[in-house]
Amino acid sequence: MHDPYGRKIDYLRISVTDRxxxxxxxxxxSEGVQPLRxxxxxxxxxxxxxxxxxxxxxxxxxxxTGGEPLxxxxxxxxxxxxxxxxxxxxxxxxxxxxxxEKYADELAAAGLDRVNVSLDSFNPERYSEITRGGSxxxxxxxxxxxxxxxxxxxxxxxxxxxxxxxxxxxxFARITLVKPYQVRFIEFMPIGARDLWSKEKYIPVxxxxxxxxxxxGLTPVKIRKSGPARYFRFDNAPGVVxxxxxxxxxxxxxxxxxxxxxxxxxxxxxxxxxxxxxKTPLRNGASDQEIKRIINLAIEVKPExxxxxxxxxxxxxxxxxxxxIGG
Length: 327
Ligand code: SAM
Ligand code: SF4
What we know:
The protein contains ten helices and twelve strands. It is α/β, with parallel strands linked by helices. The protein has one domain: TIM Barrel, CATH 3.20.20.70. Strands 7-8-9-6-5-4-3-2-1-10-11-12 form a twelve-stranded mixed sheet. Helix 1 packs parallel to helix 2 and helix 2 runs parallel beside helix 3. It is globular. Bound molecules: S-adenosylmethionine and iron/sulfur cluster.
């Protein structure tokens, strides 16, 4: 299905929990955020029903996220069930990687196609500082296990923050010279850590790219369904680097996604608080036809673009943390 601006909406990003086993400083306050009560979180059966109804509307690609999706019990059941839905061609998961070593084989066996691992430092102390206690070693073992399990190509998402990890941009890009990974740099968004985001800490994609270009020439690479990322390769490199200018919002015109929050709201745009409640009708006996109409409505009200800018420090105050929305 196309939205009123001609964008084909075929991607559903599902947050299965707002809880997390880490507290990344740019995502959450140190005390965490008040978690949803379990009864307010969509059950797997409810999520599966929504995907089953969304597939004929045109959803082809599903990403499972959170909070930390691997921290929710029996996630492989959901993976297996969503993968079995007619029309779902691509199923992926975004994780902090801490539990990936434990679950990679099981996830691959359940039908998961690939994983995105969020990793912001290769320095164990800095990693622990950024995540407020996470173990870098566990994540690296997880990435290795995911690769061996066939969850490929492994994607690593890094958020460079000035003064914290920006000196590592080059190291991250260099991995693609030796590993077949997709290393993607994502602009630090004005969401979540109220006391942390500032214009000074934010690094625009152009600046990140100019650091990466110092390593060597980059050739643009066309990757099917690359979404908002722009990909490049160094000569003869097995991997690729990608850049996502989330804040400088050059990707709204290609945005193909809807989000489903863990409390059952359809969110047409990450940066807009417009949400449409699906949980209440689901739990009040709505028919498939009614649920389908609500999904169509979310597509119809998807805004053309967002107005967040890197100079707009007040705008993020209105937004929930990514762990609540589903990053
Ligand atoms: N826990 C999983 C993880 O970390 O991959 C999935 C959920 S997390 C909210 C999804 C993504 O959101 C992560 O890649 C994280 O880096 C990103 N994220 C969270 N807050 C962000 C912010 N303020 N700016 C940019 N990216 C952010
Ligand atoms: Fe948790 Fe992911 Fe947010 Fe880090 S970015 S606190 S891992 S939800």
